Write a sequence for this structure.
């Protein structure tokens, strides 16, 4: 069968020369790491918080992070190998495992109060030293890079260049980078008060903290880009198992040219981290058939990677965990092999791995809120909840649950998910339509357990996605096994086709990829690229898309002990003082105080007692959120008494410090003796 060809084309082996360690390689590695660190720190000092950076500086950071993941992840993969000669697959799996180890190490530092830039950078440097030693002892043969690979690689270089300027992606400013920004200021990982998003798993944010704490937002975005690149490599290895090198190349190309993937590679979201852990889980699962005496160890790693994906985003429970479980049953077919005991043992081991990596998030939420998947699926735990049910209902109402109606499911198959959009998120791309049509031809060529397992996983994951929010980036983990099969099948079909058919097929594929790329040609991307290359200043870009940036300089001039209550603003990233966020869809803190207290004096005293010294309002964000809620105003409760008290509080208790264009800063007067010029209409 075609899928068994991988036995004839083994993964490239890593040379293992018998060399004794000496001071010379030690000094060389240390010099390398120190040189990289110095270059990066110099780059940061030149560019400050708006680091346009250079491709050289960005590249050095990628090298440092790669070495760090090798150093942290190699022991895990070596243990799974049980002393066997490592392969190219092992190196890629070390990248993924090392990311998880580094993320987990930040939790340990947090318990000690050391979740700060210095300890994080020191930890990464130490891991990079180990990674450098490993590559010195076990150097990897350079890959055979072809021209077609260079073309795809050039696209990713451009994406990395765009990532060198901070993105305007709202979720990044609020959540993915905003939360670790606050944690780094306080030295520990903690729940953000009044923000339900902070109860969600944040493995990606733990990884980003390494860059955010040392070099700024762009280096965190580079880690997200790197996660996407590792995903591409891993998917290529999966396709290689099915149909040799060509199958691997096509599988990697399908993923690498998917518009949503390219779009995300230039941001600091979490979706590519989810896909990276998902890809590692799929590759580890396939290896449970290859290595008889180490099978349980690969089961454990597959489960751990699946748990890490769920520990990055809840949606992975349906797009990674469920598909992987279904695929495992098909892959091992215990009813056919008769090895029920072995399968049960393997499945139990995988469950243990997932529990070890995802379980801590469940325990945290149980202790903090009373619900394991808070803020989702809270109904069975209603009596145990430690939060305001009304506020939770408002939040849950914003996020739609599962919809099993036929209209909703069919709606997810709309071609708009696969063709260039007028606006919003990038799609999966036109190439996937052709791939789906070609599956009828491809699948018979790759018949076998591995192919059946991958197809099963893709179908189960896509089915789950169709019942929920039809956002393409949530679908990406489920597309990985499909890409491996389609890439392997494409290579098999082309290998047996006549030259004219082969040329025509490749021409259609190139046309589809070109069409895909039009989805990435958006004005903001071009503006960010210009900023990265030093052609345009970054300030106008941020002022246009991130209105809170208007107040960054003014906030930095406030006293060091200032604590700011943000009103109509949920993005913490960029504020150089302690802040408390608004929940983007919950009740404003000021509104709650005005609703539950009869006196503005009490409102001011409560805020002052909690350490607040200033209030920042964002009129632009208030208008945007009100429009999203389909309300005439930002505040949820529009009763006259509450609104009148808010207006009185603004006029009597807030002294204007800086009245900007839509974004303003006020000093809180605990005695409310001032007749400040604050006006509710400005909010």
């Amino acid at each position: 069968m075609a899928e068994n060809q991988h036995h004839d084309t083994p993964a490239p082996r890593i040379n293992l020369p018998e060399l004794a360690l000496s001071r010379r390689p030690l000094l060389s590695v240390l010099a390398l790491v120190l040189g990289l660190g110095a270059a990066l720190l110099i780059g940061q000092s030149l560019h400050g918080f708006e680091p346009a950076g250079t491709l050289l500086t960005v590249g050095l950071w990628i090298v440092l992070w790669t070495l760090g993941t090798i150093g942290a992840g190699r022991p895990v993969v070596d243990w799974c190998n049980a002393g066997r000669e490592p392969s190219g697959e092992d190196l890629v799996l070390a990248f993924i495992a090392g990311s998880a180890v580094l993320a987990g190490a930040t939790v340990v530092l947090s318990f000690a109060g050391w979740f700060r830039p210095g300890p994080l950078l020191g930890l990464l440097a130490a891991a990079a030293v180990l990674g450098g030693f490993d590559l010195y002892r076990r150097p990897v043969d350079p890959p055979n890079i072809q021209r077609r690979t260079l073309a795809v690689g050039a696209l990713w270089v451009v994406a990395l260049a765009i990532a060198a300027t901070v993105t305007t992606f709202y979720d990044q400013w609020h959540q993915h980078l905003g939360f670790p920004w606050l944690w780094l200021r306080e030295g520990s990982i903690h729940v953000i008060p009044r923000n339900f998003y902070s109860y969600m798993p944040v493995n990606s944010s733990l990884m980003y903290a390494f860059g955010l704490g040392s070099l700024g937002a762009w280096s965190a975005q580079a880690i997200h880009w790197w996660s996407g690149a590792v995903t591409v490599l891993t998917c290529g290895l999966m396709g290689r198992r099915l149909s040799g090198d060509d199958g691997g190349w096509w599988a990697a190309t399908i993923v690498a040219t998917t518009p949503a993937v390219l779009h995300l590679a230039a941001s600091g979201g979490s979706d590519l981290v989810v896909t990276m852990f998902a890809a590692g889980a799929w590759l580890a699962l396939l290896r449970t058939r290859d290595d008889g005496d180490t099978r349980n160890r690969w089961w454990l790693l597959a489960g751990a990677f699946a748990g890490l994906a769920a520990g990055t985003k809840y949606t992975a429970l349906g797009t990674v965990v469920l598909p992987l479980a279904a695929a495992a049953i098909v892959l091992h077919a215990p009813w056919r092999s008769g090895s029920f005991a072995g399968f049960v043992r393997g499945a139990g081991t995988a469950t243990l791995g997932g529990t070890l990596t995802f379980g801590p998030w469940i325990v945290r939420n149980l202790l903090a809120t009373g619900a394991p998947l808070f803020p989702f699926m809270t109904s069975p735990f209603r009596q145990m909840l430690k939060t305001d049910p009304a506020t939770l209902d408002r939040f849950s109402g914003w996020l739609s649950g599962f919809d099993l109606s036929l209209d909703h499911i069919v709606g997810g198959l709309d071609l708009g998910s696969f063709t260039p959009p007028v606006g919003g998120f990038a799609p999966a791309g036109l190439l996937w339509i052709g791939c789906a049509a070609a599956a009828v031809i491809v699948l018979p060529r790759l018949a076998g357990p591995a192919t059946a397992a991958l197809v099963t996983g893709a179908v189960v994951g896509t089915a789950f996605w169709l019942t929920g929010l039809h956002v393409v980036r949530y679908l990406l983990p489920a597309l990985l096994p499909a890409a491996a099969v389609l890439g392997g099948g494409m290579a098999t079909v082309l290998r047996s086709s006549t030259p004219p058919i082969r040329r025509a097929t490749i021409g259609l594929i190139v046309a589809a990829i070109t069409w895909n790329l039009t989805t990435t040609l958006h004005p903001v991307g071009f503006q960010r690229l210009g900023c990265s290359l030093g052609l345009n200043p970054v300030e106008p870009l941020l002022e246009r898309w991130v209105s809170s940036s208007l107040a960054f300089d003014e906030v930095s001039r406030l006293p060091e002990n200032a604590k700011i209550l943000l009103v109509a603003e949920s993005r913490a990233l960029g504020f150089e003082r302690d802040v408390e966020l608004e929940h983007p869809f919950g009740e404003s803190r000021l509104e709650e105080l005005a609703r539950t207290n009869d006196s503005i004096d009490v409102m001011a005293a409560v805020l002052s007692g909690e350490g607040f010294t200033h209030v920042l309002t964002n009129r632009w964000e208030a208008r945007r959120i009100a429009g999203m809620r389909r309300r005439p105003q930002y505040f949820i409760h529009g009763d006259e008494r509450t609104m009148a008290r808010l207006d009185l509080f603004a006029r009597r208790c807030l002294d204007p410090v800086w009245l900007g264009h839509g974004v303003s800063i006020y000093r809180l007067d605990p005695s409310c003796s001032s007749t400040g010029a604050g006006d509710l209409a400005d909010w």
